[in-house]
Every structure is written in C-alpha cells, then in structure tokens.
Specification:
Two copies of one chain form a homodimer. The first copy, chain A, is α+β, with helices and mostly antiparallel strands. An eight-stranded mixed beta sheet of chain A has the order 6-9-10-22-21-20-17-11, with helices on both faces. Chain A has a five-stranded mixed beta barrel with strand order 1-2-3-5-4. The first copy, chain A, contains 19 helices and 23 strands. In chain A, helix 5 packs antiparallel against helix 7 and helix 11 crosses helix 13. In chain A, 46% of the residues are buried. Chain A is globular. At the A-B interface, strand 1, helix 4, helix 5, strand 6 and strand 7 of A face strand 1, helix 4, helix 5, strand 6 and strand 7 of B. Strand 23 of chain A pairs antiparallel with strand 23 of chain B, so a sheet runs across the interface. Chains A, B: It holds the Pfam family GAD. Chains A, B: This is Aspartate--tRNA ligase. Chains A, B: Catalyzes the attachment of L-aspartate to tRNA(Asp) in a two-step reaction: L-aspartate is first activated by ATP to form Asp-AMP and then transferred to the acceptor end of tRNA(Asp).
C-alpha cells in the first residue's frame, strides 16, 4: 500500500540543497527535467524540484554494467518528465563551475534513473521572464506556477501570512473563523448570493468582509480578534480587483487608537524587515485626508517623491486670465505642479499630458516653461509680473522647469493633477522603486451626500465613530463631520482601512438620523447588531488589510493575478477550470430558482 | 481621534493576571460586571475580562473625597455593564481568600470608576453549565460566547490551528489559498451554487474540498501543500454536520505512504501533547477496512474498549435453529457480542436493545444469559451442547454475561451489532473518557456498485489509486479492488481521510473504464484535470482532516456547534442574523435568476 512502491528509488536529497560539502555522497533525487543536452557520449540534464536545480550527468563509462539501459532511458528524457535519479555528487572542474546557481560547484554522476511520469511538450518554457499571453498562462496555470518566480511568490505569500499570524498570536489576538454563508446586508457593495435549498426563495450572501461578526466578537469579550478571511465583492473587475480576495481582518477592544496604530505599524515594519530585509522607519507619517488631497490630490498618495500640488488660487484670483479668475470666483481652485527639468517638452508632449489630465475630468491643462530667456507659456501674457513671480515662488520654479496647472472644482483639480503627478513621477524616474513608503491617512469625512439617493451615506460604514470634537455637527452640518477612520497607504496603494466603531446607543441613533433612517428602518436593516449593542458593548475598533495587494507590492508584481494561485479574469472567469459553468437542471431546480436568460437569449 | 478619549482611565492590567505579587500596586482594569453584591456600606463587584475574574471592592471610607459619586456609580452597576476601574491591589484577609479563582488571594480597592457602557439584563447568565435552550444560545450567540467555557473552546481552537500551521511550516509545507468560487463538479455531494452576474445562466460552486486544486498544485511542483480551508456541502444536516466546515487539507509528492502516515501521526500526537498534555503512543494501530468491519462492525471503531463482534456462523451453520442456519446458507453471517455482567438484564431491557438493533436493520436480536445455573435463552433449545459450548467459547463467555446475536447480511450484522456495541460500551461505563485512541483504517474498497446508476462508483473519488497488487482486478473483479485510501479515526469518529492518487494515464483510463465512462465522457467531466495530468505529474497523495470534529473531541463537547463561532441549525439557519433571507428583486434580477417558489407556494 505504497503510492510509489513500484519505484525502487526513494528520494533522500533535494536538488537545490547540494553543495561542495556533499561531494562523495550517493544521493537519490526526484524532480522534473528542466532541459537535456547531449555532448558527445555524455547526456546532461538539469533536474528541478521545489528547492532548485542541479546538473546531472550520464556518462556511460562511469555507470557500470547497466550503462546501456540507463543511457537509453536518459536519451528518452524530454522537458518536464518526472524522474528519480541515483548518483554520486562530484565537484565540477574549475572551468565548468556555474556561478549563477547555488549548486553550480557540483554535479551528480548518474548511476540509476527511473521515469516516474512522462510529459507532453508544455505550451511555454518553465522559466522566468517568459513573454507569453496571460490567458495562456492562466489556462495552464499549473504549468505557470512551476516557474521559479511564481513559486517564489507563493513561498513569500506563505511566509508573510505566517509572519502575520505569529505576530498577532504573540500579541494575544485570537484567530476566529466567521461564516461564509451569511446574510445579505444593505449599504454595501453588490453581494454574491447563494440560493438556499431548504428555504425556498431565500438566499445566503458571501461576506464582503467579516465586519459585523468581528464587531459581535467584541461584544462577546474576545477583546483581540483577527482572521485571514476570504471576502467577496461582485463589482466590476479591474486589474487590481478580484471577485474573491484575502483580507487580514483585525479588531480590538479597550485599546486607544494611538496604541492600536503603533501596533499595526510594528506588524508591517517587522514583516518587511523579516521578509525583505528592509528597514521601515516608525512611527509612520500621518496626513489628514484634507492634507493628502491638498498636497497630493489623492487619499492614497505615493510619497516616495515630491512634486506636490501647489495652490495658486490666491495669486490668480484677481488676475487677467479669466479661466483662472472665474474658477476661483465660483469657489473652485487653481493648482499647479512643477515638472522639474521638463521645460524642453515639445508641444506634442504637453498635448499628451493635457489629454491625460482630461481623462480625469480636467477641461484643459495650462502650462508655463521656465526657460533661460524667460517664461514660455500661452497664458503668461494674462498675468502681471508680480503674479508670475507669485506663481513661480509658489511652485519653487527654477530654470528648466515645466509648470502645469488645472483650474476646476477641488475634486477635479485633485484627480487630474494627482494622477498627472503620478504619471510624471514614474516617467521622470523620480520614484525609488526599492523604497517602501508607508503612511496613515486620517480624519476621513464620515459622510458624503448621495445626489441619487438624496441623502447622506456613510463613507466607510454606518458604524464608524465620528471624531468626538465633531459630534455636535452630526445634526447641524453632517458633511463637516470627520470620522475616526484611517487608511494605511503604501507606495500609492491603499493597503488597509479601518475605524473606531460607534459603541454607544445615543451616538448610533444620531448617526442613523444623519443617514436619514428612522430608528425603525435602522432596526429593520441592522436589527441583530443593534440588539447586540444593547448588551454591554466595549469601545472597539479595527482595520482590514488587503493581503493580495500587500503581497503584490512585496513581490514587486504589477497584477493581483500574480499573487493569487488560481485567479480569475476581469470577467470573473477561471480560464483553467472554465468556471462559472452550466449546471444541470436538477441542480437549479433543487434550489428553487430558474435561470432567466439562457446565453443565446441574452445575445439577441 | 481616539476612540476612548472621552474616558480618562486607561487599562494597564488584566483582571485575571492579578496575584499576591501585585499587592500595593495601583491598577486600571476594564471589563464586564459579572455580578454585584452589597454588604453593608461596601459594594463588591466581580469584574471579568478575557483573562479572568477579579473582585473589586468599593469602600466609601477608603475612596477619599470623591467617595460619594464613586459609590453612586458603583451602586448603579448591573450585570454585564462595561466599566473601567482604578484601584489598589490589596491582599484579602485569610478567611476571605477564594481558592476557586486564580486571583482569589487579592482584591482591588476601587478609587475611581467609569461606566463605558450599560447593558440590558441578558437572557441568560454569563457562566458555565447553564441550562438554556440551544436556540436561545444561538440567537444571542454574542452573549453565549462570553461564557468562559465557550471562550476557552475558541482559545483552544486558535491554539490548535496555530500548532498545525507551525508544525507543517517546519516540515516545509506551503499554505496556498485555493478559490472559493469554483466549478461545479460531478461525482460528489450536492454543491452550493453561486449565480454569475456576468455570465447569465452560469454558476460558480462553492468547494466541497480543494481536492482538484491541491492535485494541480502537485502538478505545479509545490511538493508539499496544506490549507486550512472552508468547505461546503449542501447535504441534509445532522448534529455532526454543518453546511460549511473547516478542513485541514494536506497533499504531498514523492513521499512514500508510510513516511506520510508517520508524519501525520506525529502532527496529531504532538498537538495533543502540546495542548492537552496527553501522551499518544505511536505508531498508531492499523486495521484494514475488512478487519475493522469484522471486529467492530464499523469503519471508524472506538477501540477504547473491547466487546468485539465474534463470528459464530461456522458453529451454527448446521444447527437446529433455522433462523441462523438459513442465514448462513444464504451467504449471511451470524455474529454476537458479549455484554459482560449483564446476564441479569430484564426482559424489558433486552427488548429495548432489540428495538435499538432493529433501527439498524436487524430483524431481531437473539440472546443468551450465562447464569449460575446454566444458560437462559429462548433459543438455547435449538442447539446441541457442543454448539452451545462453541458459542460460549467463541464469545469468551463467563458466568454473568449476556450474549447478543444478529443473523443477517454482513452489512446489517455489522451495523446493528457495531452500534449496539457502542451503546452498551457507553452505558456500561467501559469507555475511558480521558483516553484518545487513534488508529488508521486502511485498504478501503476502491469501488462500490450503485444499484440505482447500474454501475460502479468511486468510494472516495475517481482519482484514488488502487493498491498495486489489485490493479489487475480493476477490469476483472472491480468490487475486490482495494484502494490506497486511509482514514484516521479517533474515539469512534472519522477525523481524517485520504488517499494516494492516480498519477499515470494508463491507470486513470482503467479506472474510468471500471466506472463505466468512455474516455470522452471522462474528458467531458474532468477535462482540465486530465489535461494537467499529461504534463509531468509526480506521484502524490494526501489527507483531509475535519478540524471542527477534532476540536469537538479535544474540547470534550458533544456538538460541532459548540466549536464553531457562528454555527447554523440543522435547517441551515443562522438564528442570530436570520440568514438565509429574502433579497430584493433588483438583486436576483441582476443575477439572471428568478426564485421559482415563494414560501407560501411550497407549503401548499
């Protein structure tokens, strides 16, 4: 009863671990043929397993009595065949040492070989830096994952999550598994639904996050909870979105926000130190939401470079340039960024920048180039010398700089210039790619006005605690209330977000009022949670980190699909298994549902 | 921006950690009021947090200037109020020491108190061993989880899963997260389906296990994989079933089965040693499926006690008792168990045992009581003295024993006597509840004949490797082929099951033939997996453990619901959140489905 009992060779070493110290030892290796080379009478194979690659040489003169059959087998090997090899570790001759691989000082002189399995010729080479269409990689994901850079990514992922668990365990957090078959909740993104067989017409929802359950665990007195949790959002997918994703969910009671933030900083800093060997300075910088929007035009700024947005509204408020003046008069803003050393950009280059800015809503992009012989700009003539000087001073302009301006509503200015800043930062090589720049964004707005619904909606969720000093405004000027909410940002990505939660009934009621709910409606929507909150809820709060995104940044990859073992495409398809798929009529009948539109009908 | 900034007291100690060494220290504690007692002018509260309970005393004479207001607050406290208390740790007087709690030598003399939150009177006391209907506990799960025995269970669960992860990490296993939105697969239990918004008429399925993905990871060369994975089965639920459950999923390549089993034994033994302090002898006993069925009438025997099934078919094959004789002639079995010391059972007691046996298909239960003055039995008259002697010898009967017999098809005999054995073992106190008796069941049948489908079906799944020595029978006598499949059994529960997998094409084809599939049908059902197997699949196999069940046994609980934080009832309902629930028409319309039957229509 032994799965490999029909094979005589039993692996006792791994390919990648062999070193000069092993010389003289007889070893048995198992793995995949990376490639085979014939060299006169000799056959060389590179043998690969999870630990790495080693060179095996088949020399008929050294094999002994079975030379003929061994050489015959060796000759039949093709890429990706699975074999076991027995042989002796020998030092390579000085001139054949391969310094590129850790096992390069030795090779294994084969004595015996067994083919465990054959392989068809794979659709792409099993090696790094291949230039293969992603759809092919996804269809043959099991082969894609064989490539060392993919394997290494998942080793890193395993280690990172292990590190997180060890850290939180040391800090007395309990990992608790919360349900996947949950109740559909209002006020969130679109749910994935699961029809119930035992309750006709009713549905479970897959969790968008364990938010409610983690708050309930605080009501339960668990005090410190975490979970590496799978979450689901049926939203339209982008390169950095997946229908299912992994979230590190953390919640605690009785801890002050500064303490909690310091703990989260230590978690991240120690993980990056441990896994990547980089030193992350603590405490992390903090920017309020307002500052971040003002200075970077983004609530997830990449602070690895400057080129901050400068407000010149005051300088141009009474200028002769009508576009700027009227924008300021209408309550808008005029801001600029300084593209250092880009004064020589061609008209075409500047046009391209303008097109880019327009994608983010800007109506145009004004510019000034600071040349040796003065300002070159289509709009310079509208300004007085003093105004020009004011603009240059504001943007700290020097000779050779290109200044770019957007005048619009504050949100449009932020979006357009914020994204232009990122684009230019990358193109001008201003970003130190080896750096990991963490920061906190704090004091987010609690509510935003939803024109469509004609009411305020929660920016985070309806249980987010307002800042104490803004509590009074909840009834008078809801838009001005700041939340005890915070995001952790890394290199321009939001990697985590959280808040302190409302835990007192009177504040929760004021919040629902601000959202335009009667208490009856509120109970209808969130009844069980509100009821739970009546039974001694401690002060609590937490955070949720996007594990996939953090791993993507750690592994230096551009797509979430590279850090998820079996990801889906932007249409939510698994190209390998072809999920989703048709199911039998019996299956959907048992669930008391009927698919409304067969595919054909939809196409019509 | 501090969630508790409106409170002045900051917790610096935990209730349960205070000891005689802390005497003289001023501490701030936060937690829940377990109970309040008034004693003259003094007020005592037991304050509870996650770490335990400590007594706090409010003595107006010791509080100082603010005595009046502090006493007023203390007087207003009710059970489950959340408070912070500042006070001095003092030693209790000798005669008031409470040895039942770790903090019983000290108490805290309160100086200040703040109520963080009030609480309604909870529907049951927050204490162990409550006698409350389970539905009430489930509805108020957040309060149920406050009870120390529940908290302790989840601390144990956290530690057990942590131990497993640490162990497997040391052994070079990589944890890889596999998808939750997968493809519905044939040949399994009933799937939970998830309608796709982007692919009208198509469905994802929630995974019954990560089986296919873990095998693909072996094709990928990950070599050693594990995952603590949520799995789903839409089956009819019993006390020991939940619609979603947690599985420890392990798969490896290039390892012999004995090596792998030894590793799994070490994992379990070290975990039980580490967490429960019990010594588990290794190697675990092994029984083949056949032996287990023969001796215990079960493929998951509880071997903490004897009372094995004894085959008396040979002895009674030619006897004068027609029921026994004709059963043997028809190819059935006659077996008995020996209920030691039960010769005095009343007719009524024996009738009850018979009724019990009938539930498992037995047509009757024959018996013999071995009394001082000979055999008492309604059937004794049908046997010769030699036959009686043979029966007694076979069952090692002594004076005072009660022998119980079932004659039927082997499966019915096994079921009825196997369950009777368990019932009697418990009732007679033969089971040492402090023992953990692990064993392996091996050599399971590969296939069983499905009368309904008119073909053989896989007992485990279609990728289970047959035993090498039985391979030839796959075409000639499929029912006799044993699988390289194994279960780990603990105290009568199957806690894990696995197999070595088919990794060679020719064996897989033979297997599909035995299952009555053409290769075309096989490709239709399992295409992507069969294709993957063409590209250099290593020998591999694995196991899946039921984490919930293991925890239930470790925690000494009777129900899976006690080891799952937010479990569902036997109708799949979460009584706290009332999932599943109605959803809006907009929601199901977007998914291109239509609920067929409203609840009312089904009832009609």
């Amino acid at each position: 009863m032994n799965g490999v009992s029909r094979f005589t060779l039993t692996r006792d070493h791994h390919c990648g671990e062999l070193r000069i110290d092993h010389v003289g030892k007889t070893v048995v290796l198992s793995g995949w043929v990376q490639r085979r080379r014939d060299f006169g009478k000799l056959i060389f194979i590179d043998l690969r397993d999870r630990s790495g690659i080693v060179q095996v040489v088949f020399d008929p003169e050294l094999i002994g009595t079975e030379a003929e059959s061994v050489m015959e087998v060796a000759d039949s090997l093709r890429n990706e065949y699975v074999v076991s090899v027995q042989g002796k570790v020998v030092a390579r001759a000085e001139n054949t040492i391969n310094e590129k691989i850790p096992t390069g000082e030795i090779e294994v002189q084969a004595e015996k070989i067994e083919i465990l399995n054959a392989s068809k010729n794979p659709p792409f080479y099993i090696q790094d830096h291949i230039d293969v269409e992603e759809n092919v990689r996804l269809k043959y994901r099991y082969l894609d994952l064989r490539r060392p850079e993919m394997l290494n990514t998942f080793v890193l992922r395993h280690k990172a999550i292990k590190f997180i668990r060890d850290f939180l365990d040391r800090e007395n957090f309990l990992e608790v598994e919360t349900p996947m078959l949950t109740r559909s909740t209002p006020e969130g993104a679109r749910d994935y639904l699961v029809p119930s067989r035992l309750h006709p017409g009713e549905f479970y929802a897959l969790p968008q996050s364990p938010q409610l359950f983690k708050q309930l665990l605080m009501v339960s007195g668990f005090e410190r909870y975490f979970q590496v949790a799978r979450c689901f959002r049926d939203e339209d997918l982008r390169a950095d979105r997946q229908p299912e994703f992994t979230q590190l969910d953390i919640e605690q009671s009785f801890m002050s926000l500064p303490e909690f933030q310091a703990l989260m900083e230590r978690l991240m800093a120690e993980m990056f130190q441990h896994l990547l060997g980089v030193e992350i300075p603590r405490p992390f910088p903090r920017l309020t939401y307002k500052e971040a929007m003002d200075r970077y035009g983004s609530d997830k700024p990449d602070i690895r470079f400057g080129m901050e947005l400068k407000d010149i509204s005051d300088v141009v408020a009474t200028s002769g340039f009508k576009v700027f003046r009227s924008t300021v008069e209408a309550g808008g803003k005029v801001k600029g960024i300084n593209a250092k050393g880009c004064a020589g950009y061609s008209r075409k280059q500047i046009d391209e920048l303008e097109q880019f800015a327009k994608r983010y809503g800007a109506k145009g992009l004004a510019w000034m180039a600071v040349n040796e012989d003065g300002i070159k700009s289509p709009i310079a003539k509208f300004f007085t010398d003093a105004e020009i000087e004011g603009i240059l001073a504001n943007l700290e302009a020097e000779q050779g700089d290109l200044l770019l301006f957007v005048a619009d509503k504050p949100k449009v200015v932020a979006d357009a210039l914020g994204n232009l800043r990122l684009k230019l930062g990358k193109e001008l090589g201003m970003i130190d790619e080896s750096r990991f720049a963490f920061l906190w964004i704090t004091e987010f707005p609690l509510l935003s006005y939803d024109e469509e619904e004609g009411r305020y909606v929660a920016e985070h969720h309806p249980f987010t605690m307002p800042m104490w000093e803004d509590l009074d405004k909840l009834t008078t000027s809801p838009a001005e209330v700041r939340a005890q909410a915070y995001d952790m940002v890394l290199n321009g990505y939001e990697i985590g977000g959280g808040s302190m939660r409302i835990f007192r009934r009177e504040i929760q009621e004021a919040m629902f009022q601000a959202l335009g709910f009667t208490m009856e409606e509120a109970w209808d929507k969130f009844g069980f949670l509100l009821e739970a909150f009546e039974y001694g809820t401690p002060p609590h709060g937490g955070i949720a980190f996007g594990i996939d995104r953090i791993l993507m940044i750690m592994a230096g990859r551009q797509s979430l699909r590279d850090v998820i073992a079996f990801p889906k495409t932007s249409s939510g398809t698994d190209l390998m298994t072809q999920a989703p798929s048709d199911v039998s009529e019996r299956q959907w009948r048992e669930l008391h549902i009927r698919p409304e539109a067969a595919k054909e009908e939809v196409v019509k």
